[in-house]
Design a protein that fits this description.
The structure is a homodimer of 136-residue chains. With 136 residues, chain A is an alpha+beta fold. Chain A contains 3 helices and 5 strands. The longest helix of chain A has 22 residues, at 53-74. At the A-B interface, helix 2 and strand 4 of A face helix 2 and strand 4 of B.
C-alpha cells in the first residue's frame, strides 16, 4: 500500500484547518456554506467500512467533535453529515452547517452548483470561530 | 419528552425491514436506488450529537452493519451514507447503494426527483438478499 496522499481535487477545493489524530480537517472554499471535510490519513480507503475498527471509532469521534464545534460556531439550523465519494473516491466525510436561508436549502449541498470562494480574511474569521468552539 | 413515534413522512416513503437494538431499519420505496434508512427510536432527536454516548456508538454500529450487508447484497460501486434531515427533522441516517449506472450518478440521491415505487415482489426479493447478507 502506498503512503497516504491527499486527493488533488480535495486539495484544490479546500483549505487546511487542523490535523486530528486520524484525519485532516479541511474547509471547502465555498462561502455559501460553512462546510468542513474530514479526510482520514489512510491510503486506499473509499468506504468507512474499509477502515479497521479502531479507525472507525476514531473517525466517528472526530465527526462528532467537528459537528459540535461547527454547530456552536455557526448556530446553524441543521447539520448535514455525509460520506458520499461518488466523484472523489478517497474516503472523506462532510460536515456542513445548513441554514434555512442558504443557497441550496432544503436540498443537499452536493451538486448545488459552483462554489463561491471566500473573500480575503473570511476563512481566517471562520476558522477563528471554530477554534474558539473547540475544533482544534 | 413524549414517546418515540416514527415521522409520518418517513413512514409513508418507506417500508419496514428490521428492528435493531436502537433503530428501525426501513427501505425507501424507490426502485431507482437500494436505499436504507435507520431511525433511532429516540424522541425529539434531530442530530447525531443529540444522542447520548451509548446511543451514538450503537448508531455507528448499526450504520456499519447495514453498510456491510448492503454492499454485500448489491455489489454496488459506492456506498453513500448521510444524515441530513433538512426536510424531515427526526434523526435518520441514509445508507444507499450507488451504481455508476444509476439515475442520479454521480449526484446525490437526495433531491433527485420523484421516487419510482417497487413492483410487486421486488421489495421481498431485495430484503431476502439483505437478510442473506446478514442485515437482520
Amino acid at each position: 500500500m502506498p503512503d497516504f496522499q491527499l486527493d488533488p481535487r480535495i486539495a484544490g477545493d479546500t483549505v487546511p484547518v487542523a490535523e486530528f489524530a486520524l484525519s485532516d480537517l479541511r474547509l471547502m472554499n465555498d462561502r455559501r456554506f460553512p462546510w468542513l471535510v474530514l479526510v482520514p490519513r489512510r491510503a486506499g480507503m473509499s468506504e468507512i467500512i474499509d477502515l479497521n475498527e479502531a479507525d472507525r471509532t476514531a473517525l466517528l469521534g472526530e465527526v462528532l467533535q467537528v459537528s459540535e464545534a461547527l454547530r456552536a460556531a455557526t448556530a446553524c439550523d441543521k447539520l448535514n453529515v455525509g460520506a458520499l465519494g461518488n466523484i472523489v473516491r478517497q474516503l472523506h466525510v462532510h460536515v456542513v452547517a445548513r441554514f434555512e436561508s442558504d443557497a441550496a436549502w432544503p436540498g443537499p449541498v452536493w451538486g448545488s452548483g459552483a462554489a463561491i470562494p471566500y473573500a480575503v480574511g473570511e476563512v481566517e474569521s471562520l476558522v477563528g470561530q471554530l477554534t474558539a468552539a473547540g475544533i482544534a
